[in-house]
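Study this:
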Amino acid sequence: MNNSYDIEIERFISGEMTSEESREFETKMKGDKELSENYKLTLAAHQLIQDAGRLELKAKLEHFENEDSTQTFDSENSNLKVVTQKGVLPLWIKRAIPIAAILVLFIAIYQFGIFNSSSTVSDVYSEHFEVYSPPGVTRHNNETAQVNWEAATVLYRNNEYEEAIERFSNAENGVPDFQVFFYKGVSYMAQNQPDYNMAIQNFDSVLATDNDYHQQARWYKSLALLKSGKQSEAYALLETIVAGKFYKNEEAENILNTKIKE
């Protein structure tokens, strides 16, 4: 985290800023995603630390509420005397309070460290890329196209993506173009030496028409853009996926919320 962010965030949370400074800080957060995320994380850590303190306070209050008052008769002075007997806090509670407080603090520190850590593009890509399920067998009048399509499907299922690309290409006149382009795009990403630019070209061909693979092509294209170093274009596409609640929208949101190393 940026050191200047640390200072500003702590001053804002603790109420040390003037009204004008607070307004400027809030405006700044709206235009600075990293600052806004770090503020939320710091605020959550503060909340967890406060919760640890409340645990101990609650136990003490419950202890005081359990104080027992009894009345005894003082025969020597003929007076009724009220004697307050303080309840004894069980030993296991005494031991549990500091442990619970430490545990909550540890969770806060751990979560803060995890969420504030950054990942590489390769980390994010590896976490989210998976080969799309193989296509089914489609019946067509063009027997040559049918043979090539079925062969491509088998090769694709067996992770032989380079050979599958060639077969998919030969089947273009026999199956819907968008289906061929989509599986070629995924194959270019999954082959031993991925070609993300070719993958993007094929997904663009899918996205050029309205079809059943439109949403899937958008998701895979965003990953290909990300891996090829076009982060701003990838983010724009991911935001579209999230906004429209399209295919893989939750994973798209996860990527957008991940701090990626430059």
Remarks:
- The two ends are 14 Å apart (CA to CA).
- Residues 3-116 form one domain.
- The CA atoms of residues 2 and 155 lie 49 Å apart.
